[in-house]
Amino acid sequence: MDSNDSSGGLVVLAVDDEEPALEELAYLLNEDARVGTVLKASDATEALRILNSRQGAREASAQPLPGRGASHPVTGTRVAERTDVEVVFLDIRMPGLDGLELARVFSSMAQPPSVVFVTAHDDRAVDAYEVGAVDYLLKPLRSERLSASLDRILASRAATATEPVREENGEDEVIPVELAGTTKLVPRSAVRYVEAQGDYARLHTHDGSHLVRIPLSVLEDRWRDAGFVRIHRSFLVSLPLVTELRLSGSGYVVRVGAGPECAELPVSRRHTRELKDRLVRATKQAWSQR
Predict the structure, then answer these.
(1) DSSP 3-state of 277
(2) How far is CA 265 from CA 125, 156, 201, 232, in A?
(3) Integer angstrom CA distances of residue 25 from 139, 142, 219
(4) Mean pLDDT of 77-102
(5) What is the pTM of this model?
(6) Could you tell me the pLDDT band of residue 85, with boundaries at 50, 70 and 90?
(7) For site-directed labelling of 263, which of 68, 76, 116, 134 has its Cα 20 to 30 A away?
(8) How is residue 3 annotated by DSSP?
(9) Distance of alpha carbon 146 from the chain centroid
(10) Are 93 and 117 in contact (CB under 8 A)?
């Protein structure tokens, strides 16, 4: 573990089992004025130990919430719900727990750090974004590419940190959408389905679509209780608007809405069972209330 503490700036953890690569990454991070603290770990176990040792982690673990937090799947070490580490730059291929598995452990935290993968392999980008990565950098790392990644991290953190605007009844979240200097407020109830587009999500409504810098995984967690369900790695749908689930030649598809505005979306095999279960539960609840 190593750090270069400064007042203010991002608290960053760099994780790589190759010492030269780790030192180079830490050096480039320290060169950026937006980074205040750089911590280093040579594997996943050390990374988790650092997260738990930080002040924010100690405060959260002093009074753990029931059913929250995660454990290291190999050592069983508890992972704090919160940490003051804001960003983790993470290699993918490491001995023991690899970077993708470690990122999945982070996702179980109440307030997980942002994750950026730094790797020599260009064939894991899809997997990286599926676990919620903010960016995917290829080695050898260039300072301008790292700077662009920090831009993206700060923009993403600003978007997720913004408090949702709500209507007077406190039920319907409103999403601010920026376009050409104009802020449009899109109510969640107007969203039929959401499509993942890299670090962004496209909100599809009856009157068009709107691109927001919020990962689909964030909206999935935030909108689960509002009736939205993940049907595919690229799609989140409003369950009450699903009018049909049917088997096609290439697998299951759902129809969202009716008439000329109806959208037909693919359902991945891993999400089919959950979708069926939720549709059945929703139907039973509707009948029981009559």
Answers:
(1) helix
(2) 23, 27, 16, 9
(3) 10, 10, 31
(4) 85
(5) 0.52
(6) very high
(7) 134
(8) -
(9) 20
(10) no
